[in-house]
Amino acid sequence: MAEAATAAIEEHAALLRRLEPLLATVDAVGARLVRAFAEGGRVYTFGNGGSSVDAQHFAEELVGRFARERRPLPAQSLAVDAAALTCIANDYSFDQVFERQVRAFVREGDVVLAFTTSGRSPNVVRGLAAARDAGATTVLLGGGDGGPAAEHADHALVVPSEATARVQEMHVLLLHLLVDHVDRWAAGEGA
Description:
Helices cover 52% and strands 13% of the residues. By secondary structure, the protein is an alpha/beta fold. The chain has a single domain, classed as Rossmann fold (3-Layer(aba) Sandwich). The longest helix has 23 residues, at 164-186. The protein is globular, with a radius of gyration of 16 Å. The mean pLDDT is 97.
């Protein structure tokens, strides 16, 4: 076990160093989130499996707080309502669960963040496409090459790895960087 753990840590550290080129995009997305909140917009997130947890984590850090006392910000994860997910999946298809919610809630000026380790989940791809059609700014937190989801992202934070665990570890770092950017602004520390 120790060898496997050491290998995982070394893989994590090597991948972490490869994220530096994404920092300009992190700044651009952070600025876009700030602008959306300043102009009365909302943030919506979604993903499947572990990515749904990351999507929820991101939204709830905005509603609650990250590192500073500040007002709650309007953010919601579309992956947390079991009744909506199962209703839409049953009445339409699982591929439409995020698309239908996006069409119901997302408006021009909002920001939609989709979390997916592969970028290939049809429900995530369709949700991003619907968000872009609605006039929202779309952000992909993906892995590998971003897959088909990247085609519908205004901003792509794609972790250059095919290893799901490593991608998800980097997604947590990236979401914390984004939340910190917004947190500083919302607490009056600039952005």
